């Protein structure tokens, strides 16, 4: 393998790692926000509504909150990685157009 292709592969690998790291960080932030946004009404409804007090045990409450956090994490992480990949692929095509 030539040194040019090796350097190109190393650069692509570094770019992919950065994209995935950005996705993980954005997903984690979204999960924290979603956890708070789901926990407040869930816990408030269990305290105030007789139906919720009767039917939503602690396991159900935790399931509601963790489902919201998990969905937010995966949706935002996926969108962030795809946006980064799209941006980087357009950047690579623009560089090749210049040559």
UniProtKB/TrEMBL annotation:
InterPro entries, per database record: Enod93
Pfam family, one: ENOD93
Keywords: Membrane, Transmembrane, Transmembrane helix
Taxonomy, superkingdom: Eukaryota
Residue stretches spanning the membrane: 21-40, 60-77
Protein name: Early nodulin-93-like
Organism: Rhynchospora breviuscula
């Amino acid at each position: 393998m030539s040194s040019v292709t090796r350097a190109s592969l190393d650069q692509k690998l570094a770019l992919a790692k950065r994209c995935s790291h950005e996705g993980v960080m954005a997903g984690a932030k979204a999960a924290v926000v979603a956890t708070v946004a789901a926990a407040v009404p869930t816990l408030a409804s269990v305290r105030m509504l007789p139906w919720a007090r009767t039917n939503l045990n602690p396991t159900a409450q935790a399931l509601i909150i963790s489902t919201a956090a998990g969905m937010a994490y995966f949706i935002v992480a996926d969108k962030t990685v795809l946006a980064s990949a799209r941006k980087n692929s357009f950047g690579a095509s623009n560089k090749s157009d210049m040559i």
